[in-house]
Design brief:
Homodimer. This is Kynureninase. By secondary structure, the chain is α/β, with parallel strands linked by helices. The protein has 2 domains: 250 residues, 3-Layer(aba) Sandwich (Aspartate Aminotransferase, domain 2); 103 residues, Aspartate Aminotransferase, domain 1 (Alpha-Beta Complex), CATH 3.90.1150.10. Helix content is 33%, strand content 13%. Helix 7 links the parallel strand 4 and strand 5. Helix 3 packs parallel to helix 4 and helix 9 packs parallel to helix 11. The chain is globular.
């Protein structure tokens, strides 16, 4: 047992936070592992979305992951507001992308009435990587709280959440972090919101309001069983319930692999792997009728505006047959109905040879 890489079960969430500093660009005290992604979005909005008669709007994108849309919409309704008036959706251009300038223009148009902007780090359908630092700074200069859903960005691209002055962020751990379906999710809370102050030696501290629970209480007094909540300083104070030790074990194991390298090195490999995949996809299209190609890559061509994901918009009606052919040949490739195939050569475990083999299987599925 002395050789076990695991820590005492009550310290496992903290251990995962310690292992995630490079992953998201934050101090361990700004990171917490708890619950699941949508629950954490609700927990963060409970603390950070404070609508009033002047500021009540939430800026989001046109096609968020459905669970994000449900969470934002239900939070607005929970506060007695009308989603049609309080949800500001940024529409894409003709290429399915949302230019940064359009995001900034939307912020300007609604700056005085917006309470929160909540966008994806990487858009799940198109694969677009948003300019997180620029958008964050622009919104905060106008008094808007900034949150990010990093489900498709954490473990995929370099992040510097603390330096970028993000207010809060949430991510799952079963995509690029590889902890398994439903594994415990992560959240970031900037250090300014995790402070716990005891004024004039009072037994009742002051701290940012949040939905509180026993497991967010400071371990030094947690077992006093008192009714005065004393939160753990930092993001850990936003915990509510005891997280599953089994789930955290899978997260810890996955993070330990990331700790053998760095996000900078992974990103460097991802850039060339993705470029290689893009090149081979372009070759396939070059062999088909230019007037009727099999597919179109809708993810930005600029490597700085994407992670490893290339979203391939297939000709209508092709998705199900191609997905079946890929599966029959042992290829795990995500699909998003009605017509998008998400090709993601993840650098942690994908090789150039894997990319080439995938393309040969895809060519066969297309009848080439």
């Amino acid at each position: 047992m002395d050789q076990s890489p695991l820590v005492q079960w009550q310290d496992m969430a903290e251990d995962c936070a310690n292992k995630s500093a490079d992953l998201v660009g934050a101090s361990p005290s700004e990171i917490v592992y708890m619950s699941t992604l949508t629950v954490n979005l609700h927990m963060m909005m409970a603390s950070f979305y404070k609508p009033d008669s002047k500021r009540h709007k939430v800026i989001l994108e046109w096609k968020p992951f459905p669970s994000d849309h449900y969470a934002i919409e239900s939070q607005i309704v929970w506060h007695g507001l009308n989603p049609e008036e309080s949800m500001i959706k940024i529409e894409p251009d003709d290429n399915y992308l949302i230019p940064t300038e359009k995001v900034l223009a939307t912020i300007d148009a609604h700056a005085d009435s917006t309470a929160l902007i909540l966008l994806p780090g990487i858009q799940y359908w198109s694969g677009q990587l948003f300019d997180i630092p620029r958008i964050t700074a622009y919104a905060k200069e106008r008094g808007i709280v900034v949150g990010w859903d990093l489900a498709h960005a954490a473990g995929n691209v370099e992040l510097k959440l603390h330096d970028w002055d993000v207010d809060f962020a949430c991510w799952c751990t079963y995509k690029y972090i590889n902890a398994g379906p439903g594994a415990t999710a992560g959240a970031f809370v900037h250090e300014r919101y995790g402070k716990v102050d005891f004024v004039d030696n009072s037994e009742s501290p002051t701290y940012r309001p949040r939905l509180s629970g026993w497991y967010g209480g400071d371990k030094r007094v947690r077992f006093n069983m008192a009714n005065t909540f004393v939160p753990t300083p930092g993001a850990a104070g936003y915990q509510v319930s005891n997280p599953s030790a089994l789930d955290l074990a899978s997260v810890a194991a996955a993070l330990s692999i990331f700790n053998k390298t760095s996000m900078r090195d992974l990103r460097s490999k991802a850039l060339v792997l993705t470029a290689y995949a893009e090149h081979l996809l372009d070759q396939i299209n070059a062999e088909t009728d230019a007037a009727k190609p099999f597919f179109k890559i809708i993810t930005p061509r600029d490597p700085a505006q994407r992670g490893t994901q290339l979203s391939v918009l297939l000709r209508e009606g092709l998705l199900d047959d191609i997905a079946q052919a890929l599966e029959q040949n042992g290829v795990m490739c995500d699909k998003r109905k009605p017509d998008v195939l998400r090709v993601a050569p993840v650098p942690l475990y994908s090789r150039f040879e894997d990319v080439w083999k995938f393309m040969q299987i895809l060519r066969g599925a297309l009848g080439l």
